[in-house]
Amino acid sequence: MEDGSERLRWGVRRRLEFIDFRLFWDGRFNRSDLATTFGISAQQASADIGHYEKIAAANLRYDRAEKAYIRTDDFAPAFIGETIERYLLQLVAIENRWMRPGDTWFDAIPPIEVLTLGRRPTDPAVLLRVLDAIRKHQEIDIDYASLTGSVQPSRTIAPHALAHSAGRWYVRSWSRDHNDFRDYNLNRIAKVIDHRPASVDVSLDYEWAQKINLVIRPNPGLPPERQAAVASEHAMTDGKLIRPCRLSLSFYLMSEYNLDVEPGVLKPEKQQIVLHNRDEVTQARASSRQMSIEALARASTGGE
Amino acid sequence: MEDGSERLRWGVRRRLEFIDFRLFWDGRFNRSDLATTFGISAQQASADIGHYEKIAAANLRYDRAEKAYIRTDDFAPAFIGETIERYLLQLVAIENRWMRPGDTWFDAIPPIEVLTLGRRPTDPAVLLRVLDAIRKHQEIDIDYASLTGSVQPSRTIAPHALAHSAGRWYVRSWSRDHNDFRDYNLNRIAKVIDHRPASVDVSLDYEWAQKINLVIRPNPGLPPERQAAVASEHAMTDGKLIRPCRLSLSFYLMSEYNLDVEPGVLKPEKQQIVLHNRDEVTQARASSRQMSIEALARASTGGE
DNA sequence: TTATCGCGTCCAGTTACTTGACGCGATCAG
DNA sequence: CTGATCGCGTCAAGTAACTGGACGCGATAA
């Protein structure tokens, strides 16, 4: 099957992709679908359909009774290729109200249910300032929603990276108040007040820079056939999964999968995978954190 | 600030959105950025920039030294609006290799780290057949990767919905072998072999159709200020969160947040929220499941 | 039957976009 | 300082995309 590699103008290509998309997800589409979603005339839509037929004639046929173009059995995507995950993500985003259906190409949203506890949306203004600070190596003064909920004096941080885990966004930053590196929850930053050039050397954040291999295995407490299934699901080789991971982030992954719980506390079904080198990880993390703090202390006494 | 509500052709509008996007995320863009991502000439790109300036002149200025258009301090998005979550999702998707950077408008990917254990990608052919079966009320014969990994005879299911939780996709289906409704892991369906009209009445899936309110509270074992923080993070009112949820899916949400663990087993930090009406939920789930099974049994003895 | 609707197509006119050419200001190597 | 380079802006002329209007065709519904 061709991949639609002809030289097409960007807009035309997108419309042919749309045809591909609708055939895949709905099995059908209309000329008017094409015309309304792109705001083009019916004539132009006809021309586009003709264009698509030239490229992938076997993919569709017009059904007069249905008044629609119908996907054939030998349909093979000519444009959208292997980008299925992308559209699945869009479905999740729609259900979570992160996206409006109109932002996507879905017509009938498939009957899906998305289950999360949700979280507060990200403030664009905050994200913009944080990204700027990362890019331009600035330190920023922020209003941070403290644990107690009480009003706190503003804090000064020098962010240098974003991290995402288990649905949360973290801002990896140097903290002026503590003179060490920490994670700040992006959604808890209420406001970015001011900014100035940062003085800290972010390469001293060893806990971020250094990686370690998490060695993950199926929980040996599970019946052997369940262990095999778990191994298969996580695409393990030789019954184990090696996952490289920044030291500072290892905590979140361990937390998400209950890897930080002592063996035997939870039923094996609640802890399908276990971390084989847990002690090594916690120890490496603690020591790199200590090294980082000492290096920062030396730098500040020496430099200022 | 205007929202770019002029009547613009679809392609032009997308390009102005692109300008908005790059200004937001990178703080800058080039004429050639515009020209190359959309495959248009430099002249046309100039025209588009002029067009954008007419709509949101205060958003950008040209810096001759930088050879780029730079975001001003009073920048306010004129096109991309509040669709920030969408682009954050794209960043996650890129890091997970679900999307290629070229599928997005990002130039320099911000320094982000995405932490998951990953999973096998979804097979487009399988998804397509499953969606068809849902839409057309068909039953399908599938090759299902069993827990033991051994080859199993094919199973016959009649799917009627998709569900997403904790990174997994489930296919809610009637099972011919068991004459009840179950969840099938989408990634475990290796192949869809055949299909025919389904005979089962999906409205008998009470465990799916019926919803219950999960009453979620901060773990009382946490210090009060931590409880307040948890309540705030989950946007609780009066210290509790009411989350309506299909009975069949309640299990996954409980599993994801360790709500299904007896109080006292885990440290409170590992179980920041607790389910106040756990007994009610498990009981409702069991009874609706039983009702469903009985209804199906009556239908099959009476009907066939 | 008649009315309606969606598709396909021929037509002429408009807009978007192209290639080609030239000038301007900033940066850089010699 | 000078000439080369690069990215931007613009004028001009031609092409491709797209629009409006009009007409016929087949299927469906009143």
Automatic annotation (TrEMBL), chains A, B:
Transmembrane segments: none annotated. Residues 12-91 form the DNA-binding transcriptional repressor CapW winged helix-turn-helix domain. Coiled coil: none annotated. Residues 212-281 form the DNA-binding transcriptional repressor CapW C-terminal dimerisation domain. Residues 126-192 form the WYL domain. This is WYL domain-containing protein. It comes from Blastochloris sulfoviridis.
